[in-house]
Amino acid sequence: MDTSTQTLLFAAELVEENGTYSLVVEDLRKGTVQTTPVPKSMVDKLPVYLAALAAKLGPVRPRRGR
């Protein structure tokens, strides 16, 4: 029986407004929010960045209860 719990630490959103992109990251532990502009070229490559990150980190393995 798996008794582990998940705790959301950060929440991120990529927001587009009038052709301008911003990354908004909320630190749920501290209750703070940071926003930074993101160029469209980076937004277009986001799927490539995520695939590279997933390849580097490998598959996530489920935790086992103790």
- Biggest sheet strand order reads 1-2-3
- Report the end-to-end length measured between terminal Cα atoms: 10 Å
Number of helices: 2
**Strand segment tally:** 3
Approximately how much helix is present in the residues? 25-40%
Q: What kind of sheet is the major sheet?
A: 3 strands, antiparallel
Order of helices and strands: EEEHH
Uncertain runs = none
Overall outline: flat
Secondary structure class reads alpha+beta
Query: Measured on Cα atoms, how large is the radius of gyration?
Result: 16 Å
- The average pLDDT value, as a whole number, equals 90
Estimate what percentage of residues fall within beta strands. Answer: 25-35%
Describe this structure as you would to a colleague.
By secondary structure, this protein is of the alpha+beta class. 26% of the residues lie in helices and 35% in strands. The protein has helices at residues 40-44, 46-57; strands at residues 10-17, 20-27, 32-38. Strands 1-2-3 form a three-stranded antiparallel β-sheet. The longest helix is centred in the C-terminal third of the chain and has 12 residues, at 46-57. The termini are close together. The mean pLDDT is 90.
List the helices and strands and how they pair.
Elements: E1 10-17, E2 20-27, E3 32-38, H1 40-44, H2 46-57
Antiparallel strand pairs: 1-2, 2-3
Task: Give a short summary of the structure.
The chain is an alpha+beta fold and 66 residues long. 26% of the residues lie in helices and 35% in strands. The longest helix has 12 residues, at 46-57.
